[in-house]
Amino acid sequence: MPRLLALTAATLAAGTALAIPPPPTPTATELAQRGDDIAWSITEGLTTEIGPRMAGTEAEAAARRWALARLKALGFQNVREEEFRMQTWVRGEESAALTGPFQPQALHIAALGNSASTGPKGIEGEIAYFASYDALVAAPDASVKGKIVFIDHQMQPAQDGSGYSYYGRGRFTGPNVAAKKGAIATVIRSIGTDDHRGAHAGGTNFEAGVKPIPAGALSNPDADQLVRQWQRTRQMRTKETALGYTPEPLRMNLVLTPRNLGQRASGNIIAEVPGSDPAASPVIIACHLDSWDLGTGAIDDASGCGIIAAAAKHVMTAGQPRRTIRILWAGAEEVGVFGGKAYFDAHGKERHAVALESDFGADRVWRVDFKLPDSAKPVADRIAAAVMPFGVVRGRQPASGGADIGALVQAGVPAIDLQQDGTRYFDLHHTPDDTLDKVDPVQLRQNVVVWTATLAILADSSDAELP
């Protein structure tokens, strides 16, 4: 090729190359849709390398060390632990059996958090059956005194998890009611919607001045068996009393040996994506790091921690936001929301633009609820439009926040709830089945995309919208 033609060709080639614009920088939401699956990596890592993370134990301390290393490796700033102390309860030996009047049968039981101990020899007593928590409350003390109370009720699946607070009263305060009436122990049907032979753990509470009694939850199939035997005994009593017999009552042998270890260390893990405007109030996003000890805490709440960290990472990668994003991996939520309370004690007087929490499993987000000031209506509208393509509808009720941001929301901090599908959540909640295989990676990714789209809008909102 002649020299002039060669130079012309080179010039044209260079000009053509210069004329091609660079590809646009991907948005945070686009990164969430095609980027690294950070949420799965965190959920898998936490459940594989640490496993169960009972509050106040060495396992929870190991989880905090793991969390500090992981969040620093992801590039977050101001990563730190804020320690607090809390009363620590751990389970011991657990067994239950129906001992009469039929052939003895073992039952699957789990002690409730804060349960008292039966002692290693256990206790045995007549069962006082109550169809519901309300029936126990209404019962005369004489029908309870000296007996083992059983509270029966069957929670049903619901997309929004409704029913947990209603049926959960049997666990939350049922043993306290029974103790005040003179019961020697309380056994409840698990607060769950499954038919597996695994009991659902969870905390119970006793009022000041009420002496705690042993308290446990039966798996749903074992609760069914107890109910059938109670009904059979009742039928026998009706029939044989007419013939002059006094049939034996339904009895249970119960061994629960949990221990209180006293005040032990727990802590919150905090990390941040620093905003470009230090004067702007931060957006706080929360999950809880601890778990009950029966499973590995995959849906409750390793996946929640993965979701919020992944969303914050995608926003950070897309470019510095205006507002600081503060990540809270709270400790000791399961046994009394101690981490959320400790965060509020330390930071409650600081301004927060808005608070969000992921603590309802790993299934898809289907609805968004808002509790925002009137000035933030444009923000809510932008978020509703941004998440609609991912199958999320706008709710008509105010957001309530989650447990670990509850004190902030009660104090007036605005809140947004990205409501997850809870249809199968209470099949797994607080059971040995809360393991990694129950997390659907496709639905987990949808959570991250919806959270990222929401967080990106919040982190760039103006002071006129969110103070």
Structural write-up:
- This protein has helices at 3-19, 28-34, 38-49, 58-73, 133-138, 164-167, 169-172, 174-180, 220-242, 298-318, 338-347, 377-387, 406-410, 425-428, 441-459, and strands at residues 77-90, 94-100, 105-107, 109-111, 123-130, 148-151, 185-189, 215-218, 251-256, 259-273, 283-288, 325-330, 354-357, 365-371, 393-394, 415-420.
- The strands form 3 sheets. The protein has an 8-stranded mixed beta sheet with strand order 3-2-9-5-6-7-8-4, sandwiched between helices. Strands 1-10-12-11-13 form a 5-stranded mixed beta sheet, sandwiched between helices. A 3-stranded mixed beta sheet has the order 15-14-16, with helices on one face.
- The chain has 2 domains: 28-90 and 261-459, Zn peptidases (Aminopeptidase), CATH 3.40.630; 94-257, Glucose Oxidase, domain 1, CATH 3.50.30.30.
- It contains 15 helices and 16 strands.
- It is an alpha/beta fold.
- Helix 2 (28-34) packs across helix 10, helix 10 (298-318) packs across helix 15 and helix 12 (377-387) runs antiparallel to helix 15.
- 36% of the residues lie in helices and 21% in strands.
Topology (elements, then pairings):
Blueprint: H1 3-19, H2 28-34, H3 38-49, H4 58-73, E1 77-90, E2 94-100, E3 105-107, E4 109-111, E5 123-130, H5 133-138, E6 148-151, H6 164-167, H7 169-172, H8 174-180, E7 185-189, E8 215-218, H9 220-242, E9 251-256, E10 259-273, E11 283-288, H10 298-318, E12 325-330, H11 338-347, E13 354-357, E14 365-371, H12 377-387, E15 393-394, H13 406-410, E16 415-420, H14 425-428, H15 441-459
Parallel strand pairs: 5-6, 6-7, 7-8, 11-12, 11-13, 14-15
Antiparallel strand pairs: 1-10, 2-3, 2-9, 4-8, 5-9, 10-12, 14-16
